Amino acid sequence: MNLDTKGDAAGTPHNSAPEDGTRRSFIKQAGGILGLALAPPLISQAERLTAFSKTVEGVSTMTLKVNGTARTIQAEPRVSLLDALREYLDLTGTKKGCDHGQCGACTVLVEGRRINSCLTLAVMNQGKEITTIEGLAKGEELHPMQQAFLKHDGLQCGYCTPGQILSGVACVQEGHATTDDQVREWMSGNLCRCGAYPNIVAAVREVAGKA
Amino acid sequence: MDNEPAFFETNGPGTGGIVGQPLDRVDGFAKVTGQAKYSAEYKLPGLTYGVLRTSEIARGKIQSIDTSVAAKEPGVLAILTHLNLPKLAKTPNDPDSKKAIGAPMGFLPLTSDQVHYAGQPVALVVADTYDRAVHAASLVKVNYAVEKPVVSFLDPKAQVFDPEKVQDGKTPGHTRRGNPQEAFAASPIQLTATYEHAINHHNPMEPGATTAVWEGPDRVTVYESTQGVTRTQKALSAMLGLPTEQVRVVTKYLGGGFGCKGSTWPHTILTVQAAKAVGRPVRLSLTRPQQFTSMGHREDQHQTLKLGATREGRLTALIHEKTSTTSPWDNYAEPNSRIINLLYNCPAFESTYQLGRANVMTSTFTRAPGEAPGSFAIECSMDDLAAQLGIDPLQIRLLNYADKDPTNGKPWSSKSLKQCYARGAELFGWSKRNPKNGATRQGRYLMGMGMATASYPVHNNQGTARIRLYADGHALVQTGATDLGTGTYTVMTQVAADSLGIAPDKVRFELGDTRLPTAPNSGGSVAAGTVSSSIYMAAQDVWQKLTKLAIQDKKSPLYRAKAADVVAEKGRLVLKTDKTKGEDFMALMKRADMPDIEGSGQGKYGAGYETGRAPGPADSGHEDDKGGHSMHSFGVHFCEVRVDPEVGTVRVTRWVSVHGAGRILNAKTARSQIIGGSIFGIGNALMEETFRDPNLARYTNASLGEYHIPVNADIPDMTVEFIDEHDPYINAMGVKGIGEISMVGVAAAVANAVFHATGKRIRSLPITPDKVMNSLAV
Amino acid sequence: MNNFSYTPAATAKEALGLRKDTKEAAFIAGGTTLLDLMKANVEAHPQLIDINQLPFKGIQETADGLRIGALERMSDVGENALVMQQYPVIAEALLLSASPQLRNMASIGGNLLQRTRCGYFRDPAFPCNKRNPGSGCPAQVGDNRNLAILGTSEACIATNPGDLAVALVALDAVVVLENAKGKQRRVPLLDFHLLPGTTPQRETILEPDELIVAVTVPAAAHARKSHYVKVRDRASYAFALVSAAVGLEVQGGQIRSARLALGGVGTKPWRALEAEKMLVGRAATEETFRTAAAAAVRGAQPREHNRFKVEMAQKTLVQALQELMAS
């Protein structure tokens, strides 16, 4: 079915960094910052300098490894992994439902483990393998979990769906999909307001059965 | 053509065999791959971010508002307050303008220094990144002259009054049929019960979101998370003072709505004004806490139901009173009395609404508005009547079965409730129910079985659709409807495929844009019936045009046939009398050198359909057809619960729903929708409650962590069936719609099962463990 | 959130040194409490010090029990074979906490520092003595359905929301802390959390220049035979209305040692020492359990909406003990 999902999105790439106002955008360099006079004697100068060399402040360059590709953004350290994906990389398949770890819509896999991307910072996740819903299918060939969600109608509005699917993939990998009740418990970190739960259980169980 | 029929004759809708099939969602691929774009996901050049700053207090006056610190934050582009909001042509603050706008609330924040409710927007900050806007919003300093708020209708300070009408003028404040007071007084069986309902919030997973782009000084496009692009367009154009064609509203994907996205709320127009102020696109997504104070809620309410009956269990009188909280400006109450009035055969009825004004925003329709809480009252009381008389709960309902609409004596356009009862009871194993309450144990648990009837009216409405059929065999089908996740994309693709006699994958179906033919709001269960009928009618228009072409075409096998003798069947025009004689549309169009042909159709739903009368404005409420039929869908829910008698936890362990709702367009998505509505109702029954602080009138649990909606582990496998029902009176497709009825009666079915399990009746929703535990301690 | 700076620390010394430089800096491990509260404007920190690279890892059997590194994730501890077999109450408490995603993120140390879910604390629009000392406690006469009945004060009735801490406090766990000088001290978890009193803003004895290194739990028969029961408003992904952690050593039907703790009812993870005494030396019967449960809630001071917790806590304790005996 050819549904127009992109027709209205102006496809201009948006890699421009937010303006940093009066502040200088930088990664603090060793020796670049003083205030060392207040250094407590117990910590060696060398250690302090190492720490400063790693401090990220203001708009900075970050590299995220998303779906196998290294992507660079210019963002402040306060940017959550979720917002980095949605607002800086235009990977809007990862959803914001609550922004507080209370709904699971933002679930992604980091180093193969499911997490809530709203409660971690992009800057903390540099160098880690991040998998989002956009990285699950191989071209037009859907991941078995995506296929099972279609077949069992494990979705209605679709907003919790990417998180459900990634959670489902992890649930099977973890070995937590051996019974219906186990799936119900281990998929409870993903709220669905449309109420697709029984169908989600069917989808996850089917994939687990094939695994 | 002299003898051109008013309706082009086919063998009827759905003859292609695609309608009704459990087709996978056609928008499923986009949704499972993350490609579906919701309203806060459009990437636009120069995009900026809007964030609301909302009021901490519930009542008072803004004495001063200092934006200087916030404005100095890097990236901040504008801060709108009541002091500088660009002027609007109309605001809902004036009652007449409110009507013209179609606004749900008679107050627009940022138009005065008054604070009327906690969470009311007091500023809107725009910045170049989301985080900067959020932080800057927190730096706006607001000084309030604080006044003591009125918290709810229960607050001693609240003035409770008798409104002339409620539900924004749609429902009379007082209704009477027969002599209910006398009948009740004379009844040998008299039951009086009060039911309490907590505040509920819709909480769609996608929070309200608006992305506004001004393409010129007087032309704006708004990507809006709404259940109705047309209604939003109307509201915005009225407020902006722009012709509707200069306001485009787009909603391609909607992350749930359940009623809260059925109206245009303040954040939308404020975002549009912010975009105008900064001269760049502005995207605003409500935070989850803001969602609780931005798009309405189901109001806190008490209902008292007096039920009179004979010793045999026949109803003699129903007297219903509802008191609920409303806002300082509006008389909103969901119409609970509607279902109580019509569900059973009862000669006398009275309903009264009372309202108490408090410092809260206006409540709004929430899935099955009125029918959901109304059914809780009537269906619990019917269960009590059954228990008191020692009659099976299903039997008491059959005893009072309404063979015609008791409110007006009209016949039903269709009603399959008896079949629903019978099939549901069979699937559920109702006959195994122990007639004694509190007597079924499973280990240390108490088990209970409950049931309740569901019903929902067919509201009158209308919509239009356009079809462009191409000679290469595919079609473009367009209508400005929305898909909340209910399956509109999918079922309309099926309807179009069947009506045109082509495969579903040859149909490209587009919705969610005011540039498309207008369609009603997706709400009140009207979308499926209205939109499917408009598509069906548009297809008929195409066939009529093609017939004209064929019978004038010397090379056509139908040359010189009478139009009335031609029918369309599986993509072919054929003679009614000899179906081997005819041709497919592709051959006909190619020969005529016609690359495509367009047709349009108007679908009428409910009262407007049968009488041919143009219905009133969209969602004007239920009105029985002038042709003499009462139009409703009916169904039944059966529920089994397991109650922990020690700590009071309730788990639903089995569920069966059977509905008669006209034609079912897709067996798979329809089942999902019924399951979803039942789960929504289970949340309402067992856990959903927003708590308003009794002194400060501010919500204390405005989050998905503390406002509990059901999780996967709360829900068992569910069985859903439909009774095959043909209703010729409601619309061309015979579709009643199932979005609301799926939730009606659910809370009562759960409560009745708890009653059966424990022998204790809990009339206060939600039925949380503490209430069950306390009921058993007595 | 305010625009903080971010520094990953490689060693405890480095992390604590940075904290000394910037008093208001915060350590971040899983981030599930910290970022949640920063987004809600409940907390603001100019700097976040990432401690995830610190070597506070490992789930080990030691000579006298169990040692869990503070940076181990809840999910890994909850499904660790040693923990599941020898300390089931810990594993059960962990797997009944939060959601699989949050458990994959949240660290053990961070979980012990989890802050209350009191709605007044979590929303800066409300007065709250814990967040803003001296501003008042509207919860006393407001929405207190899920607030504490034990250890409350006029200033604060916020519930400690933990599950893990309840299991750990039952089993006499000890928190290992390290300061900037590299010096370690061991504090029983029982003494780690503070009662609100007049200073509800102070929640633990953790000093600003200290980090949680590990938690140790002594091996014991009552640890091997232990169990966690959690009662909540929905079946999963919810904080406890009431929870109970119980451990028993029973020989010949007689209780030799007992460990009881309650969650969801106390302003800190609530060890029921008096109730334990009423079990030891008695027969493991329902009657004994009921007597002990009554002792566990003695002195409870419920408010308008949380009266039910007095009874629910007792029933949950009895249920946990019965299930333990049946297992």
Strand content of chain A: 5-15%
Q: What value does the Rg of chain A take, in angstroms? A: 21 Å
What proportion of the residues of chain B form beta strands (DSSP E)?
Answer: 15-25%
Q: Biggest protein-protein interface?
A: A-B, 79 and 82 residues
Tally the helices of chain B: 19
Parts with pLDDT < 50 across at least 5 consecutive residues of chain B: 1-11, 612-622
State the separation between the terminal residues of chain A, measured CA to CA. 29 Å
CATH topology of the domain at 144-210 in chain A: DNA polymerase, domain 1
Could you walk me through the main structural features you see in this protein, from its secondary elements to its overall organization?
- The complex is a heterotrimer of chains A (211), B (778) and C (327).
- Chain A is built from six helices and seven strands; from the N terminus they run E-H-E-E-E-H-E-E-E-H-H-H-H.
- Chain A is an alpha+beta fold.
- Chain A has a domain at 144-210: [2Fe-2S]-binding domain (DNA polymerase, domain 1).
- In chain A, strands 4-3-7-5-6 form a five-stranded mixed β-sheet, with helices on both faces. A two-stranded antiparallel sheet of chain A has the order 1-2.
- In chain A, helix 3 (144-151) crosses helix 6 and helix 4 packs parallel to helix 6.
- Among the domains of chain B are: 404-459 and 626-777, Aldehyde Oxidoreductase, domain 4, CATH 3.30.365.10; 462-605, Aldehyde oxidase/xanthine dehydrogenase, molybdopterin binding domain (Aldehyde Oxidoreductase, domain 4).
- In chain B, strands 3-5-1-15-12-13-14 form a seven-stranded mixed β-sheet, with helices on both faces. In chain B, strands 7, 10, 11, 16, 17, 18 and 31 form a seven-stranded mixed β-sheet that branches.
- The longest helix of chain B has 25 residues, at 527-551.
- Chain C has 327 residues and is α+β, with helices and mostly antiparallel strands.
- Chain C has helices at 12-21, 34-39, 74-78, 81-86, 88-95, 100-105, 108-112, 119-122, 164-170, 189-192, 221-224, 273-279, 286-296, 308-326; strands at 5-8, 26-28, 47-50, 59-62, 65-69, 174-179, 184-188, 210-218, 226-231, 242-251, 254-263, 270-271.
- At the A-B interface, helix 2, helix 3, helix 4, helix 5 and helix 6 of A face helix 1, helix 4, strand 23 and helix 17 of B.
- Chain C: Residues 1-222 form the FAD-binding PCMH-type domain.
